[in-house]
Amino acid sequence: MTPALKKIFPEAQDFLPINGTDYVEFYVGNAKQAAHFYKTAFGFQSLAYSGLETGDSTKTSYVLTQDKIKLVLTTPMSGNTEIEKHITKHGDGVKVIALWVDDATKAWEETTKRGAKSYIRPNKTEDKNGIVVHSGIHTYGDTVHMFIERKNYTGIFLPGFEKWESAYNPTTVGLKYIDHMVGNVGWNEMNIWESFYRDIMGFANLITFDDKDISTQYTALMSKVMTNGNGRIKFPINEPAEGVKKSQIEEYLEFYNGPGCQHIAIATDNIIETVSEMKKRGVEFLHVPQTYYDTVLDRVGIIDEEINKLKDLNILVDRDEEGYLLQIFTKPVEDRPTLFFEIIQRKGAQSFGKGNFKALFEAIEMEQKKRGTLI
User: How does pLDDT run across 161-182, given as a tens digit for each residue?
Assistant: First the structure.
């Protein structure tokens, strides 16, 4: 059994305790090539494989790992399947946000009896390494949550997977764990999904941002951050707000053809080293207006890092009552302007960079302008 985790958000009901993120699964057009990208650019390592060689003739999956993070990249082996339809509709994107629980059956029962739509009923899979119980529910758009119970399993990943032996494993870049994952939903849907996470999954509303908090002269959005009781899982939910021009949320919804996971925030212990290495490997980051750095220290006070290094790398800084954080955002990692990543280092701060919103959105708008979607 997993040791009980401290409940730091007492307002969360926590009727299905979650130990952490188990894995994130992407449906992609070419898993072999996508795996090479995430190994090369993001420093992930080979972990496990499932496909024709393991007896699965319907799909191929590569599992990558870095510290506590597991990414699964899955490609269909034929057309007219759920996976193929997902890729045609959305492009490469997140399908499964899997949550590590002690009891996947109870997690499914607790959520479905509260109104969740079932994706997969509780099911056991096993091999010589033991048994895994998994179940799942639908959430926004075509995204699903899987509940993974692996307390009786000692294998490399899941039954049906074998160790992925590869001679090509670039060094890691210092990515540690998933800090939060952001979902974009449609107009006037934010409160619907706040209620979903509160009433169906027992989460609490950690913080709310309205269109006054998150706006520029052109665009705006609103957001509510939902968290489970131990704070291991945080899901900001974004919806569009009225603005002069098309916001990044509207652009996402248009190109993704509906709600979905907009970005994954990954934590590091040294953002300068991590970002420097990722840039060497070809990862492209947003460029914030350089005037941002003229006044940032007046706003956030003394920090440990050299401000010129942050400026050179376009790293943003913000402070709350518990400390400060450093963050930076990649450009979309797909041809469609949809999924991107955030790299974040927390030095006490538990917030989400409210003081950086204006600079960040201006940077995103510059990219939208290049794409011809800021209209």
Answer: 999 999 999 999 999 999 999 9
Tokens linked to 142 = 């075509």
Q: Which two tokens stand for residue 274?
A: 């991590």
| Shared-domain flag, residues 185 and 314 | yes
306: left (phi over 0), alpha (psi -120 to 50) or beta: beta
CATH code for the domain of 245: 3.10.180.10
Question: Counting every residue, how long is the chain?
Answer: 375
Contact 349, 320 (CB under 8 A): yes
Which of 141, 147, 32, 159 minimizes the C-alpha distance to 93? 141
User: For the chain, what percentages of helix, strand and coil (3-state, to nearest 5) are there?
Assistant: 25, 35, 40
- Domain tally for the chain? 2
The model's pTM is: 0.93
Residue 80 confidence (pLDDT) = 87
DSSP 8-state symbol, 198: I
Residues 229-272 pLDDT 10s: 898 999 999 988 777 667 888 899 999 999 999 999 999 999 99
> 110, 128, 163 — which closes off a domain?
163
| Count of Cβ atoms closer than 10 Å to residue 307 Cβ | 13
Q: Is the dihedral of CA 48, 148, 174, 30 positive or negative?
A: positive
In a domain, 170, yes or no: no
Which letter, b or e, does each residue of 163-198 get, where b requires 16 or more Cβ atoms within 10 Å of its Cβ?
ebeeeeeeebbbbbebbbbbbbbbeebbeebbebbb
Tokens 């934010």 sit on residue: 190
